[in-house]
Amino acid sequence: MTGPFDEELVKVLPDAVKFICHNGAGYDSIDIGACTERGIRVSSTPRTNIHATADATMLLMLGALRRIMIPLQAVRQGVWQGKTQAGHDPTGRVLGILGMGGIGTEVAKRARAFGMHIQYHNRTPLPESESEGPKYVGLEELLKTSDVLSLNIPLSSATQHIIAKPQLEMMKDGVVIVNTSRGRIIDENALVDALESGKVYSAGLDVFEEEPKIHPGLLNNQNRDMEVLALENLEEALQNNKLKTPVVEQEV
Predict the structure, then answer these.
(1) CB-hemisphere CA count at 13 Å for 212?
(2) Could you tell me how far CA 214 lies from the centroid of its own chain?
């Protein structure tokens, strides 16, 4: 069954129902208080989707860094040279993981292979043996210093809209955001505004705030930006009469 197991539904379940065995790690769709009041015990399936979700996070992260949807859509429309722009390499970038549980830890392992510098925030720091090296920072520092932000936290009253306009304004210009947790972790209206302004370079989203409805601003956003390295070469030429990355044939 899909949809919420809310109080209204739980109240009309027959007395014979004593257990709800939920097929998923997150169970925010089930009103646990209402179940407890009825004497219904609830189970979930923790840690079963850790590797699959970590893989999906990396897929979305790499795609968002490269803005892969722009050339992909162009090719599907029969346009060979469309509005494709140079993307970003993951190597050397700071990955901030919000929620260093099982999935966050696996994301860190994978991101390390791409040469990323990893930091994380939890309510409490993990023992170093469990975090496997990433640096623990406060939430504000995580938001202010990460080039890529991966959201890997469960949805609760405390985490709903934990990423909203004030948090987005703290972030670096051109930040990349990846969300594979729950859609309501992010205020989508604020995210759309940040994408349109360029504050957020791109977003890799596996979940949405009002599923199955998707915010039209997310569907229509084209992620405009400048090609940074070309501008750096131009600046170097004007200021120092040389190029930062000359062609091979002209390297001295």
Answers:
(1) 2
(2) 16
